[in-house]
Amino acid sequence: MLIVMGDFADPASYLASRRVDRLLARGREVEWWAVVADRSRPLTPTPADDALLREGRSFAGADDEWPAEPVRIPNSGPATAAYAEAFGDGLAHPMRRALFLAGWRDQRDIADPNVLRRIAYDVYRKHPAPFTGRPRSVVGDAEVRMASRRQGFLVSMAGGPLTRDGHERIRRWREVWQDVGSPSLPAILSADGLVSGWEAVRFLAEVDAGEAGESWLEAESDRAYEREMMRSAVG
Prior knowledge:
The chain is α+β, with helices and mostly antiparallel strands.
């Protein structure tokens, strides 16, 4: 299990997410924990720093769908809430992918609950597994929670999670991030420390290419460490 912490408002995390998808396609087991690094960010998208964009472009590959300028950075709080809810429904990776593409490639405002509703509606429509085996009537889902999920309701109009589990998941992900020193994101947890920031983006690319990380990924000590971190974060 490879554990990556990232922020939906962070360009390095966007590129890390693209590399995580490549690892998943090759059969790697990866879990993404969403963290809001800057809670003071304005609710509306703000212009991206030119130096940050230059660094991002230097790491982006031809298939990374790097956004066209001008680029605006979203507030990631509501998107993190939507992700935490989808995580509990087993749709973490489809939702992560959809949120990053919407916020970065498409430059949509992923802090807007109405935008998030449309994104979530599409994700749950394409991935209906959470509804399988649950009671329905002629008027729809018998469970209010699942009926709201089917319509794309994952966050409140204030941008927070709708369930206690969603709130708890966000809190514990953030606690783990703070416990390891609040490193630059994305951050990859390991038994010997961590890899963070743009180095984490480079590391994921090297793992995908088979050039680095094999012994680390396979070591039993690392697997034990990651299992413990997972229990502390989401158990």
